[in-house]
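G., the chain you wanted modeled:
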Amino acid sequence: MEINIVLAILVTALATYISRFLGVLTSKNIKETSKIFKWFNCLAYSTLSALLARLIIFPEGSRTYPGQHVEYQSGIFGIYKYTKKAVIPVALNSGTYWPKKEHLVAGGTIIFEFLEPIKSGLTKDVFMKVLENKIETASNDLINS
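Predicted structure as tokens:
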């Protein structure tokens, strides 16, 4: 799993530096409205967005099997503390229809439920407990409904 994150960061960095390098080399020939410029920017930003979304949506660090308890990673607290913004937990039932390391199961609907925001200013221990409780309770409700 750690290798995947490192690889994604390297790909993102490579895409960013390639686009910058090409921009420097051809700055007089490439306009910001050109397709190639937009393509490189989209590639770099989409890869970075995918990394951030994974961290925010899956604070366990990875998808887990329904009912499996995995310790939540503290990276989400770092974002919470640094930004001083509320965090909107998301519960989902995807483990029922798309088990970890397996193919999608036909015949189901994956539901994302956006929960009440967790206001800024909590300590790490309190925040992590509130986050895990909200997500796990709501996810279990989705799975069992």
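Residues 133 and 139 are 10 Å apart (CA to CA).

Shout if anything looks off.
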